[in-house]
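Quick one:
INPUT:
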C-alpha cells in the first residue's frame, strides 16, 4: 500500500513532512519510491536526492488517467515503501472537461465528464484507490481543528482519510487542546510536529532552491530523519507506506530502433527541470542521452544529433552562461546547421539574444531567437491548452496538447507566427500566442510531459535520427 501526504492548504508543511518520512525510511536502508502530484520539478529533486531514485510526477492534466495509473504501478515494483506528496490543498484541482468514456468514469468526475478537482491530490487518491494522510497547519487553530479534519474526511465518500499529522504545534498545552477536539472523531493522529523555527529549506522566486545549490543537504536530511523518528507514530503509519506486492506489472516498452542518435541534454545548476519520464521515453525510442553543461563545457558532445534544453534558473547564472562564449557559439552553429533542438522555458531564455536579470543587467546569450528574456515581478503560472498554429517538425497544424507555464520572465519581442495559441483550463479563454519555431528549433515557455504527448518525443527522436544519418554521410 502507498499513501498520499496531503495538505489542508498550500504551505501547510507537507513537503517538509514528506522529506522527513523519506529521510527516515532511507536511514533504514529501505528501497523507497516517491511520487509528486502535479507538475512540480523542484520538490521532486529533493525526493530523488534522498531516495536515490527518480521521483515520478503524477499529473493527469499533462498526461492522462491511464498514464498516471501505469506510471504508479510500474515504479512501485520491487520497492519496500511508497510515498506520494500531494499538491496544494487536498481538493485543489481545476474544473476541467478533459476525459470521457471509460477513462472519464475512472477519473471519478461528475456526470457529463466535468471534474471539479481534476488533477488534485484527491483526484489521484480516487483513481489509484489509496488512502490519504492529512497534514494540518495548527499554528492558528485549537478546537477548530476538528471541523477541518471532519470536513476533509467526509466531503467526498470516495476519499479515505486514515489519519492526520498535526504540524506547527505551539506547546504541550496547545497539543492537549487539539487532541481533545479530535478525540470524538476517532481519527488517528499519526504525528505531531512542534514549531521548528530553525528547520527551513531556502527558497526564492520560483519555490525552493534546487538541491544542486545547497551544500548542507545531508545535514538537513539527518535532522529531518530524526524529526520523523521521534515525532511520528510509526506503528500506525508504517503499514500505509509498505508497498503491496500485488500491483499489476505494465507491459514492457517496445524494443528501441537499433540506431542510437546522440541527444545532448543540458544539465547543470542553470538547467535541471526535466521529468525523468521524458528522458526515459527518448531512451526507449532508441536515443543515446549524453549530459553536458552550458556553464562549464565549451563544446557540444561529439556527434551530437539533437539538443534538449530543459527549464531551470538561467537568470541566476546569466553572467557565467554569457561568459562561456564557446558554448554559445557551438549551440548557435549547431542550430543553424539544422540540428533538431527542443527547448522549454529556461532553455528558451538561453536561446534568446540576451537575458535581463532582476537587477536590470543584460547578459548576451545564444542569439538564435531575435528577442530578449527580461525578468519581471509578475509570475506566469498555470496549465495551458496549446493549439499548434502551423505545421513543423514536431507538430501538425491544429494539433492540441496540454502543458504548464511557470516563470517570471517575459519576451520583449514575440514571433509573427507563434508555435501555439494558448488557452487556460477555463473554456473559451484565449490567452496569447506563444513559442518560436525556426530552423529545426522548437522553443517555448511551455513545459510538456511526453507521457501526454508521446508523438512529440517520437518526432523529435526521428528528426535526430535523420540528422545523425546526414552527419555520417558528411
Amino acid at each position: 500500500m502507498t499513501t498520499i501526504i496531503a495538505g489542508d492548504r498550500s504551505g501547510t508543511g507537507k513537503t517538509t513532512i514528506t522529506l522527513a518520512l523519506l529521510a527516515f525510511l532511507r536511514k533504514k536502508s529501505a528501497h523507497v519510491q516517491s511520487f509528486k502530484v502535479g507538475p512540480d520539478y523542484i520538490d521532486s529533486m529533493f525526493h530523488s536526492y534522498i531516495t536515490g531514485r527518480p521521483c515520478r510526477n503524477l499529473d493527469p492534466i499533462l498526461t492522462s488517467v491511464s498514464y498516471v495509473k501505469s506510471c504508479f504501478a510500474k515504479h512501485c515494483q520491487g520497492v519496500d515503501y511508497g510515498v506520494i506528496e500531494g499538491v496544494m490543498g487536498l481538493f485543489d484541482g481545476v474544473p476541467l472537461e478533459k476525459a470521457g468514456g471509460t477513462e472519464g468514469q475512472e477519473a471519478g468526475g461528475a456526470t457529463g465528464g466535468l471534474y471539479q478537482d481534476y488533477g488534485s491530490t484527491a483526484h489521484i487518491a480516487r483513481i489509484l484507490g489509496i488512502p490519504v494522510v492529512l497534514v494540518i497547519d495548527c499554528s492558528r487553530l485549537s478546537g477548530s481543528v476538528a471541523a477541518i479534519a471532519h470536513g476533509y474526511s467526509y466531503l467526498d465518500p470516495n476519499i479515505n482519510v486514515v489519519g492526520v499529522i498535526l504540524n506547527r504545534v505551539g506547546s504541550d498545552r496547545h497539543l492537549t487542546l487539539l487532541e481533545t477536539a479530535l478525540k470524538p472523531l476517532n481519527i488517528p493522529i499519526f504525528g505531531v510536529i512542534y514549531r521548528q523555527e530553525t528547520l527551513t529549506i531556502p527558497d526564492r522566486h520560483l519555490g525552493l532552491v534546487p538541491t544542486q545549490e545547497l551544500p548542507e543537504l545531508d545535514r538537513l536530511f539527518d535532522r529531518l530523519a530524526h524529526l520523523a523518528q521521534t515525532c511520528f507514530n510509526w506503528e500506525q503509519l508504517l503499514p500505509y507506506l509498505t508497498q503491496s506486492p500485488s500491483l499489476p506489472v505494465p507491459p514492457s516498452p517496445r524494443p528501441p530502433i537499433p540506431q542510437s542518435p546522440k541527444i545532448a541534454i543540458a544539465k547543470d545548476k542553470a538547467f535541471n527541470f526535466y521529468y525523468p519520464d521524458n528522458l526515459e521515453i527518448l531512451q526507449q525510442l532508441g536515443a543515446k542521452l549524453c549530459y553536458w553543461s552550458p556553464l562549464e563545457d565549451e563544446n557540444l558532445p561529439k556527434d551530437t544529433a539533437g539538443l534538449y534544453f530543459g527549464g531551470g534558473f538561467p537568470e541566476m547564472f546569466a553572467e557565467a552562461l554569457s561568459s562561456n562564449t564557446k558554448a554559445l557559439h557551438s549551440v548557435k552553429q549547431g542550430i543553424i546547421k539544422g540540428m533538431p533542438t527542443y527547448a522549454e522555458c529556461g532553455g528558451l531564455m538561453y536561446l534568446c539574444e540576451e537575458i535581463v536579470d532582476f537587477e536590470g543587467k543584460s547578459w548576451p546569450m545564444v542569439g538564435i531567437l531575435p528577442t530578449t528574456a527580461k525578468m519581471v515581478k509578475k509570475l506566469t503560472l498555470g496549465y495551458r491548452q496549446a493549439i499548434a498554429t502551423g505545421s513543423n517538425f514536431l507538430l501538425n497544424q491544429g494539433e492540441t496538447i496540454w502543458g504548464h507555464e511557470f516563470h517570471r520572465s517575459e519576451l520583449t519581442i514575440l514571433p509573427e507566427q507563434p508555435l501555439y495559441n494558448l488557452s487556460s483550463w477555463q473554456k473559451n479563454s484565449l490567452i496569447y500566442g506563444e513559442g518560436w519555431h525556426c530552423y529545426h528549433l522548437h522553443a517555448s515557455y511551455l513545459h510538456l510531459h511526453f507521457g501526454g504527448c508521446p508523438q512529440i518525443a517520437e518526432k523529435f527522436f526521428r528528426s535526430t535520427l535523420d540528422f545523425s544519418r546526414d552527419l555520417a554521410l558528411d
